[in-house]
Amino acid sequence: MNRKSFSSVIVVAAWLPLLGEAADKAFQKDVEPLFKKYCVHCHGPEKQKGRISLDGLNAKMDTPLWRKAYSQLKKGEMPPKNEAQPSPRERELMAGWLGSVLKKAGAVRNGVIFRRLNRHEYNNTLNALFGIVLDIEGMLPPERVSADGFLNNGSELIMSPLHFEYYLKIARHFVDKAIVIGERPERTGFQASFTGNARLVGRYLDGRPGKPDASSTVRKRTGDGTKYRPRSVVLPPAIRAKGVQIEARQGAKPMLEIRLKEFPDEGAFRIRVKASSLGKKSGHHPWLGVMFGNHLDDGIELKQIGLLKEVTTSSSRPETFEFHGRMENLPLPFREKNLGLQGDLNKASICIKNAFEPDEKGSGPLLEIHSVEFEVPFSEQWPPKSHRSIFINSRNRENEPVYAREIFTHFLRQAYRRPPEEREVKGMMALWKSARAVAGKEAFEKSIRDVLPAALVAPAFLYLVEPSAASESRKLNNHELASRLSYFLWSAMPDAALNQLADQGKLDESALPAQARRLLADVRSSQFVENFTSQWLDLGALERVAVDRKQHPTYQPYLRKAMRAETYGFFAEILHDDLSALNLIDSSFVYINPLLARHYGIQRVRGAQFRRVEVRPEDHRGGLLTQSSFLTGHSSGLDSHPIKRGNWLLSRLLNDPPPPPPPNVPELNRGNPAVAPLSVREQLKQHSDREDCRGCHEKMDPFGISLENYNAVGQWRDARGGRKVDAEATFSDGTRLDGVVGLKQFLLQKRRDQFARALVSKLLAYALGRSLTIDDEPIVRQLVVVFGKNGYRIKSLIEAIVVSEPFRTK
Amino acid sequence: MSRKSWHLNRRTFLRGTGVALALPMLECMGKSAGTRPKSTPPRLCCVFFANGVSLPPVGHADHKKWNWFPLGEGANYRLTQTLKPLEPFRQDMTILGGLSHPLGRLLVGHATADIWLTGGDVRGSEYRNSISFDQRVAREQGKHTRFPSLVLSSNGGVGYKTRTTTVSFNRSGEAIPAESNPRQIFERLFSGGGTASLRARKRQLQQDLRIVDLVLEDSRNLKRRLGHHDQQKLEEYLEAVHEIERRLERTEAWLAAPRPAVDPGQLNLKVSQNSPRDYIRTLYDLIFLAFQTDTTRVATYQISQEDGKGVADRFPTIALKLKGHHGLSHDHHTPGGFERWAQFDRFLAEQHAYFLRRLQSVHEAEGSMLDNTMVLFGSATSTTHDARNYPLVLAGGRALGLKHGKYLTYTEQIPLANMYVSMLQKLGVETGRFADSTGTLNGLT
After folding, report:
1. Is A458 close to B125, i.e. CB distance below 8 A?
2. Cβ–Cβ of A663/B109 closer than 8 Å?
3. Cβ contact (<8 Å) for B311 and A667?
């Protein structure tokens, strides 16, 4: 027996336990020789092409690898063309057998797992539960990314003592803020208006003497021919600070900055700004942006409060705009007693700017600020809503044990996303009794406050619990479905309407699509848009790539943010307008703001906001492949990186990830003087002309090459290093891609089904919170058909997913 | 992982009688929580960086200047520019060459942080690792301190297989999430009790224990209704809660002991990963303070993650205007490539020297704080993807019995775990084995 066949005997031995005895015989007779003949000599003990060795596989199964082998066999990608090919019947035998093994393995391994809320969902859920928005996500360790790129995969979401420690801490944090004990705290803040010379007049709301400082960055003269106004501050469009290595800490100029020495570090606040437009002449209106800032040694850290607001009314009828937030979420001076900070470093700043994107000369419509008011803690009612939603109205308020039970029953219903069991309420009551034993003022409120955190560290809160004793699947009940639906489309808990349907048992096949539509129409669906797109498309790459600022000085953190926002907005536009998902490959429009418009060289976009803009061929834009979020994230930071881009396209858009490169391959270094003058094809050829590299690179490099017209930060270029860009690529079968236009045509014509299938698979995996298995093949196939029939509209796909069997069963 | 029966009994006992009686119970169960040893405590800090180091081959123009490993051998070695910042500690450190984990050599690519301290077997599709060396020490030394160990990394969390963002693994081989936010680390270590009175804190703790009790009871109930795989996940949760329960009991014992007064003014807690030098130093500062106050005796810090993942890959770019770390590690064949890479190696050595200097400047009963602290600094690949000949510097711990002053080299017959055994024995862990060790390491003790 030579080594080769010995190795396949190992393979067989490892596979055997999965099959019945009759199947063994059939396998030995018909299938095993085929694997020996066609596979093992390249993927065995002697050679491990693509670092894949089929003799290392065992009964535990490396499922992703096996699925890959299965799909490559089926698609005819393996064995490679220059090797002996199995006959169609042989191929079917091998694939069929692998399929059946995978199916068995899948049945053992998969199903939606008891999954923890990831830290983002957890934060959203707490915010919704208490009705207060606290940004605590960063307190928890980052989540693990699943092999398919998602952050909501049950098997990857681990629990550790550190997690639990923080869960308890955060629970207390929220409950302490939600429940207010004692008198309404005194309101602080200020009211300010302006006199001549843009000097601030005003008063503190708590009657302290003095007034806040206003900074002098406001221009005294407005320029632009407008006369100086005596009772307001006039702000021309602000120009952002540039040239700071990491974060633009210099803010924008000009800004109206009001500095506060005294401020609380917790509580809800409201900022009101009375403003008007001086932009009649240009036909444009200014935009109002309000930020909170914290002075640091090297500048100012700013956080935008709420959204930018377009100001349209004239000076005689100024409009009042409100901005809400919480002090806890702001960058505030770090006031430890021994720190001894001096001057401005002790102060918090409210900064107001005209967010209209200025043109090259720095001009645009003027914004007029009449008054500013800041109030904290802000509450329309006392006690606030968060308090009242825990201490619910009841006739039994005087009867503490009865009232406590009502409170817990109500709270657990929300927190557990289902009616609580009697046992659970009893547990809370027992805890409450010991907490109530401590007497004192407001002892009842305090006792409730002490007990509620217990519910927030229980599995019923932290996990999506879908009990099922047996290994066989069962239909989900209405409450479980409601949770799946809301975590899918809102990354948060169900709302009252969804809860009510679930309580009534009405969340059936006919109600689910309607609910999905309702959830998508709600603003909270931005959670789905952002989480799904950023994970599917790996937008996090933008934060990982170190862009060379010398070569690309316009690449500033705010541009990076805009790049991300473009992809979100673009996806949302397709989703909400019910457009074909093929627009993701090629579209006649883009979704950009003036900042990106300038980055892309599209001249006709003014203002501040993102909007849909129709493109012309000379813009070279349309579809995800032309968006700088992808192009920059998968560049080298210095130059384009055809391999990274090609890899992204294969893995993310087409869901066909190539295996990782073999070890000790030098990185593609296009800056190397020896390589730089070569054309991109020559460079890549040099890089991957090894036999063990070629197989994968032939599949991915042409994609990257066809995008060569986009530089490291996604801007169009006709030439690179003095030579005309060569963006013509050829696959090994002779198919040619002529630049980005050719690429998009190719994808739409030749890879449409693969793309549709990829989107279906990714969306389904995200909806279920688990990786797909071979068992999901039929449903994926079915969904792809439905998707196509419905003109590739994403909403229709989502509606089909939420009534699909895997979504409704455990 | 079932609960031991004594555990249940004790909890029942605790609830019935109040916690004041808990201490003697803890002690008779072999936990000496609350009692500090008289002598200076031994400590361990392990600092990891990814992607290996620049090693221009012998004969290369940059070899003598930028080879991470020194020239020569034994006591007469000569440091190149790379480790020059560590020169002042020559008599307090040993540079080790040739060592690696035999199982690590079988892995290709990037599974380095996973196994650096574990020597574990992470082949195969299931993730199975084993306890890390630091946690083995924490099991002994952690009994004496408020926190058994401190697990830090620049990226935070656990990362994923072959690209972990932590170098510490618990007894079951599961990754321990690392903390990365200086402010949060500070608060957790030094200001947990706040200003509340002892009575109030005691009440809070009792409340915590009751909460833990309730969720444990709840979960046991739930477990019966879950399928096999869900049960495994719930088990993970139960383990975490049990560990917190143990920690609460430990806190109980520590309640009366005041938290060390640490002045946050001496720390730059607002620093972020966008200022690598200051960030790395702040993390070193936090470890230093935790050691100095005997808040913990065991710490790990993973400076960067393998393979260009995570924010730490940009450290060379921000600090030195070079490429990303992983990019640097692949670029050595280009002109000046070795030197550029080595500049970042040197940068890391400078920050490390800062830490050693701090430790050295504090005098304790038996020598300096450095003499009572073992500080391991290194990686688990020599150059990227080459899982042999790990670059390692072991400093400090002379008062614990380590001998220093040499550059020692070993053959591949000697597994790295042997060094861990030698260190364990000097750190109060009575054992002759760790991972795949075959004995102790010659020349170190």
Report:
1. no
2. yes
3. no
Instruction: Name the closest residue on chain B to residue A116, using Cα atoms.
Output: B233
What is the nearest CA distance from B207 to chain A, expressed in angstroms?
Answer: 8
Contact A544 B318 (CB under 8 A): no
Domain range summary for chain A, segments of one domain joined by +: 3-109, 113-184+385-465, 188-376, 533-750
Q: Which two tokens stand for residue A572?
A: 């949302």
Give the closest residue to B210 by CA, choosing from B4, B2, B14, B7: B14
Domain A188-376 has CATH 2.60.40: no
Pseudo-torsion of CA A506, A510, A512, A515, nearest 10°? -90
Q: Is the separation of the CB atoms in B293 and B351 below 8 Å?
A: no
Half-sphere exposure of A256 (CA within 13 A, CB side): 29
Give which of A60, A151, A160, A544 to mutate to test B binding, by max B Cβ within 10 Å. Answer: A160
The two tokens of residue A235 are: 């702000």
- Find out whether the peptide bond into A377 is cis, omega within 30 degrees of 0: yes
Identify whether the C-beta of residue A498 lies closer than 8 Å to the C-beta of residue A479. Answer: no
| Residue given tokens 């936090």 in the structure block | B286
Token pair of A663 as six digits: 């070890």
Say whether pLDDT at A246 is over 70: no
Contact A470 B227 (CB under 8 A): yes
Amino acid symbol at A182: G
Confidence at residue A26, expressed as pLDDT on a 0 to 100 scale: 65
Class of domain B45-184+276-426: alpha beta
**Minimum Cα–Cα distance from B220: chain A residue:** A459
SS3 of A116-164: the string is: ECCHHHHHHHHHHHHCCCCCCHHHCCCCCCCCCCCCCCCCCCCCCHHHH
What is the model's pTM?
0.82
Spatial separation of the C-alpha atoms in residues B302 and B289, rounded to whole Å: 18
Per-residue pLDDT at A665: 63
pLDDT (average), residues A303-326 = 94
The secondary structure of chain A in percent helix, strand, coil, rounded to multiples of 5, reads 45, 15, 45
Higher pLDDT, B16 or A611: A611
pLDDT at A16: 39
Angle at B118 between CA B147 and CA B142, to 5 degrees: 20
pLDDT tens digits, one per residue of A624-660: 999 999 999 999 888 999 999 999 999 999 999 887 7
Average pLDDT of the segment spanning A538-557: 86
ipTM of the complex: 0.80
Which residues in chain A are closer than 8 Å to B179, comparing Cβ atoms? Answer: 141, 162
Q: Is residue B37 reached through a cis peptide bond, with omega within 30 degrees of 0 on the bond before it?
A: no
Q: Which two tokens stand for residue A531?
A: 């989480």
Bridge partners of A348, per DSSP, are A260, A294
- Chain A CB contacts of B153 under 8 Å are none
Query: HSE on the CB side for A309, CA within 13 Å?
Result: 21
CA A191 from chain centre, in angstroms, equals 38
Give the pLDDT band of residue A25 (cuts 50, 70, 90). Answer: low
Q: Which residue has the higher pLDDT, A37 or A678?
A: A37
Count of pairs with CB atoms under 8 A, one residue in A, one in B? 192
Closest to B440 measured CA to CA, from B95, B424, B429: B424
Residues of A in contact with B210 (CB under 8 A): 431, 434, 454
Q: How high is the mean pLDDT in each 10-residue block of chain B (445 residues)?
A: 34 33 29 48 96 93 96 95 97 96 78 91 76 95 90 90 88 90 87 69 85 91 85 89 86 73 77 90 94 94 85 87 86 88 97 96 90 96 84 97 96 95 94 94 93
List the single range of A347-351, A436-440, B375-379 with lowest mean pLDDT.
Answer: A436-440
Q: Enumerate the residues of chain A whose CB falls inside 8 A of the CB of residue B184.
A: 139
Contact A664 B247 (CB under 8 A): no
